[in-house]
Design brief:
29% helix, two-stranded antiparallel sheet, 4 helices, alpha+beta, 4 strands, globular
C-alpha cells in the first residue's frame, strides 16, 4: 500500500469512525479489523469520475487537480463495515451521485 493509500484510509477512519451505512462505531480504535475505507468510485471505474464530471463534487481540491488525486480525496470516500463492504465490492450496494443518496438492492440489518 502506498503512502497516498495510507493517507486516504487513515483520513477516512479519523473522519468517520463508524460505518456510514450501518452506523456501527469502531469501539476498538486503533484496531480497524472489520472496517474498510472505500472510494465512491472504485479505482478501476475511475473513468466514470471523469466521463460524468463527478469530480466537481470534490471540493477540497482545485479543478486543475490530477484526476487520480481527486479520487483519493477524503470527499471521495467513506467507511464501511466489512460485511457491507463485500456488498459494495460486488456492486450490490451503490452510491447514486446524481441525487447524492445511498441506494441499495439488499436489506441491511442493524446488527452488521
Amino acid at each position: 500500500m502506498s503512502g497516498r493509500d495510507h493517507a486516504f484510509r487513515d483520513g477516512i477512519r479519523v473522519r468517520d469512525g463508524k460505518s456510514d451505512i450501518t452506523g456501527v462505531v469502531n469501539i476498538r480504535v486503533p484496531m480497524w479489523t472489520g472496517f474498510e475505507s472505500v472510494h465512491v468510485f472504485l479505482l478501476e471505474k475511475e473513468s466514470l469520475l471523469i466521463q460524468f464530471n463527478y469530480g466537481r463534487w470534490i471540493s477540497d481540491m482545485g479543478d486543475d487537480t490530477n484526476r487520480f488525486l481527486k479520487n483519493n480525496s477524503l470527499h471521495s470516500g467513506f467507511l464501511l463495515s466489512a460485511v457491507v463492504y463485500q456488498q459494495f465490492d460486488q456492486y450490490l450496494l451503490l452510491v447514486n451521485l446524481d441525487v447524492c443518496l445511498l441506494s441499495h438492492w439488499t436489506f441491511l440489518r442493524a446488527d452488521y
